[in-house]
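ARCHIVE CARD
SHELF: 3
SLOT: left
DATA:
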Amino acid sequence: MQEGMVQRLINLFNNAFAQLGVQVELVALEDLAVLIYKGMSVQARNYHNLDHVFSLVDEETPILTLAALFHDLVYCQVDLGFLPEIRAIISPYIAEKDGQIFISEEAGRGEKNVQVALQTFDFSPGQLLNPFSGLNEFLSALVMVKKLEKFLDERDLLGLLLCVEASIPFRESAVTGEDHFYVLEKRALAIDRAWRLGITTDEVQAAVKQAVIFANRDVDSFAETDVSSYLETTWKLLPETNLYLRSIEMYSIREYRQALQAMSTSMSRLKAERVFHQYRGLPPDAEYQRMVAQARQNIETAKQYLKIKLLTQAILEALAEVTGGDAPLSLFMGDLPHDGVRPRRLEDYLPEFRIPEWVDTVSPVFYLLSDQRSLDSSFDLYTAPLALFVFSSLTPSEMLELSAVAADMFEGKVKAEEFLSAIKPGVLSPIASACAKMAFTRREQLKRFVG
């Protein structure tokens, strides 16, 4: 019989403490477990939840286990604030103004462990915390320090702080310059000198190696050889970072397109060399180069996939715009399958089509668009039949040209009617016809695009 989530968390804490030679009372273990359970089970947590925590736990390495339990505890953009229990811990150390979070001017005054946390992150009192450059990681680390300082010594706390700091993603790596972890080593050595922790250089380097293991494991989906597994992680992030996608049946065509567009923009800026890190031969050169190469391939595939999905959404958005305005995506596409029931869907009305010669049917992109993969999500289909129809109906040059016009439409430079006129009838007519069968309230307006 499988143990419950809270019970599992209690056992993880208990085992980690025991390996560190620390005995913690059951009531304290329960308090820690309940905090993690509540923090990681907020409704909006679609990816950064307990499943993610458990995937990072290393029951043979207590520092990695404890870091896994705390590293994503705070995620204020997703949680839309802080749990009362978390706010009570961090409120003495932060100041909030106009929706922004600052480190308070008095933060760490008289508290050695808080000052060590600030130095580990290279933060200072009064500093504005950037949501994309350590806000959540630092506040998670702060909660961790305040909850664990009564149990752990300063060396173990520093090891934990290094791991959580290391989980700030997509920073300079060995391929492009001095890896961040060499910077982290210098910080740790400076902390040891300033606070006389008595940690040797070898011990600091061992702690930083644990941190690089933790950081790489935190983003290990980028090294997935099955691109659909990698994409699944990307898709789980969409409803976390886009509030309107959390309501499964209510998000509109435009809202879904905007979410895809934001993800596509982020993906286009992401360099594979910033995903994984290498420090003092860890991971070994061959493994590190394999990880970076796989990340590059997965990022490129995701960019191509998102481009096709965006173009498909552009067609639906334009059809909606000229027939009455933006509408729930489900009005045009149909509801998502749920509870074993598959409702009527737009793709049920698409004509049968042959895959043309120019389509590489063994390519990762075709694999993602077709029914060969098993990806599923709470707000999107595990296949993309409409996108596959568009992908198979346009040559690569036509796809490129039409995507450029779609981008202009998104920016308001081209009207929806103009965009639709740029789509060849063999693509637009079948889609408009299928939409007319689904969005029957707009049937007459949609019929003028069927020919």
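SLOT: right
DATA:
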Amino acid sequence: MNTVTIVLLVILAVLLIAVVVLYFLGKKAQKKQSEQQEQIDAMKQTISMLIIDKKRMKLKDAGLPQVVIEQTPKLLRGSKLPVVKAKVGPQIMTLICEESIFDAVPVKKEVKAVVSGIYITGVKGLHGKPVVVEQKKKSKFKQLVEKAQEKAGAKPIK
């Protein structure tokens, strides 16, 4: 056998091993995530709160309790996450918001939020109405780019 064939077989074997390892790690992470979701669903409760402020900030700068910071993995402590400061009853609390609903959380309005511990998983208006997110006005440049993409066929026409 020549050296090119041997090198290709070694690369193929390494890639095959990497795919198998990633498959099993993915299954393990998916199982762990489903268990965490079950715990969140078991602990959730609806609370009326006044949203004071919302930001994406680093975990150590968010003002969360020290216990929460110590329990998170060291790699995630520097990453930014959606944080909501809200008044729940007479107390002002810092809560972590789910990424998918962060844009729907209104600022300086009272809402009914589904909360599990310090984690906000859902938000509705005060009287059960879904919160309407206002779309930001697009700049002229972005409008021109979208028109060009529609004409070129990159985006579907509205």
